[in-house]
Structures are given as C-alpha cells and as structure tokens.
Amino acid sequence: MHYYLVPRKNPKLLSIIIPCYNEESSLPFLKERLEDLIKILPTKVEVIFVNDGSSDQTIFQLVSWAEKDPQIQVVSLSRNFGHQLAVTAGMDYAKGDAVVVMDADLQDPPEVILEMLTKYREGYDVVYGQRLARSGESFFKKATAWAFYRLMKILVHKDLPLDSGDFRLISRRCLDALNGLRENHRFLRGMNAWIGFPQTPVFYKRDPRVAGETKYPLRKMLKLAMNAAVSFSPLPLRFSLALGIIVALIGFAVGFYALFRAFQHFVLEMPIVYNPGWATIVTLICLIGGSILISIGILGEYIARIFEESKGRPLYVVEFVKGSSLTEKSKKLS
C-alpha cells in the first residue's frame, strides 16, 4: 500500500511501555541496557513499567528503580490480567507523542528504537519490528510461531505483518484511536492493522531471553490465537457451516451407497453379500454428533464473548501507581 507521508520531528516525549510478569531475573540487565539507550535517544523519555500481578520480587525492584529515577513510572495491576491488557494499561497512562511497546526479556533489542524513530520522522504512524531470525529457540517453538503468524494473517487481517510481535512504535494519533477500542478480548497486533494509518517494518534478529523463562508457551499462544480469531473474524462460524455441509454430503453418499447395494442384491438379484452392519451407523452417528458439538462449541465461544462484553467491566484494575508524573493521569482514569 502506498501512503501519503508527512515528515515530522522527533516526538517531544517518547513513552516506552514494558509489561512485566515475574521478570526479577531480567530487570538488572534491562536496567543497564535502557539507561545506556536513554542517553543517546534524541528525545525526552518516560518508561512505564506495568507489573502484571507478579509473584516474585519484580514489583519491589521496579518501585526501587522508580524512587531513584524520575523517568521511571510503575503501574501495578491488582492481579495478573495478561500481556495484552497489561500493555493496554501502559498505553492508557502514556503521555508521549509516540509510544514504544517492548518486553522485559531483551529478546527484542531496545536499540532498534533508534531505527523506529527514523521511520517515525519519515511520517509513519506504526513502525513494527519484524524478525529475521529467532536465536535460542527450539525448532518446535520456531515452527509453531511460523504457523501462528500465517494463520493469524488468514483469520484476523490480510495486512497483519508476518513474524512481528507487539514490539513497535505507535504515534499519538494512532494510540488515541487504539485507546478508543475497549473490547475485553484484545489482540493488539490485529487492532493496529485494523485501524490503518501508515505502517512500515524495521528488521532485526531476535536475541535469546537474557534470563528467566518464556511467558508465552504453546498453551498461551493457542489461547491468543483463539481470542484473535473469534474477536476479529467470522471464519470459525463459517468453518462450522462448511463442516455441517461436508458431513451432510458424506451422509448422503453413504445412504446412496447403501441403497445402491440393496438395489443390486434384491432387485437385480446379483450375488452380492448385503450386510448392513453397525460400523456404518456408528460412523455416521460420530460424524454427525461430532460436527454438531464442534459447531455448538464455536458458537459458544462467540456467545461467551458477547456475554463478557455486555458486563461492561473495566479491562484491568490498578492497585497503585508509582511516579509523580503518573499521579494526575491516574486521577483522570479512575
């Protein structure tokens, strides 16, 4: 897609949003890298850490850091709400003309932010990191990630970039549009693609985790894929319709075959053994019953999401904020 780009200056304030869930072992490494980066960034910076209900020493390290550095802000959620909602909390509190979303494990190098700012100055509203390689990960992890992104491109949005996570820079006008979308089941990458605005990649090689364990095992990846598919696409419902049609056609085919064999045996008196066994009946019952249950299950997922959206509950609950610049923002959001 060709965009009409209007060049602009660096943002006056850049907000870096970092969700944290049990990252006590990663934070010392992250602190060193971030402090070195902030010194060379061509703009003022605020770093918003969102503690997503960590059960280790993460929150204590973050509060200690915030007390020593006025650029560090901490939003602590009352429990674990999940990565996408933790990022949403950070975006709600961000005051910058542009924001960068990144994880605390340093798999996405913070230094890439400099390249993102170059694209921002060219006029792009979303600059996403696109991975050329994934170091330190197993073949199974790489294969499932490869399949995940391509499946999401089919189910969620045709413009959804491949091999890119939530590591990205977002302009203020795009952020305001994102913050206006308040659905409970969030897939921020798909929401970015749905909104539009000029978008472009920067390419980088993903590093191994600096410490700790991955917070996105296969189970969570499948859950995210389900949320994204059901939230953004009617394709699962159409799949259940197609499944019903296929099962019906199989039933018609088996029924026609049974009538044909009976016709050969009784009418044409051909020497054919006609044994209407239980296997055919059981197979048809399993096919029909299975397709019905699958269809009901898919429909139930959509109804469950309608039910949850109808409650009107807040996306997250903040336990406390730390950092003087967040105090007034917290009052406006409460």
Kindly estimate the percentage of residues that lie in beta strands according to DSSP. Answer: 15-25%
Q: Largest sheet, order of strands side by side?
A: 7-5-6-4-1-2-3-8
What quaternary form is this?
single chain
The number of distinct helices, counting runs of at least 4 residues, comes to: 11
Taken in chain order, the helices and strands follow as EHEHEHEHEHEHHEHHHEH
Number of strands: 8
Shape: elongated
Proportion of helical residues: 40-55%
Broad structural category: alpha/beta
Biggest pleated sheet: 8 strands, mixed
Instruction: Compute the separation of the termini in Å.
Output: 40 Å
Radius of gyration: 26 Å
Explain the overall architecture.
It is elongated, with a radius of gyration of 26 Å. By secondary structure, it is an alpha/beta fold. The model has no long low-confidence stretch (mean pLDDT 81). It has 11 helices and 8 strands. The longest helix is centred in the C-terminal third of the chain and has 33 residues, at 235-267. Helix 9 runs antiparallel to helix 10 (278-310).
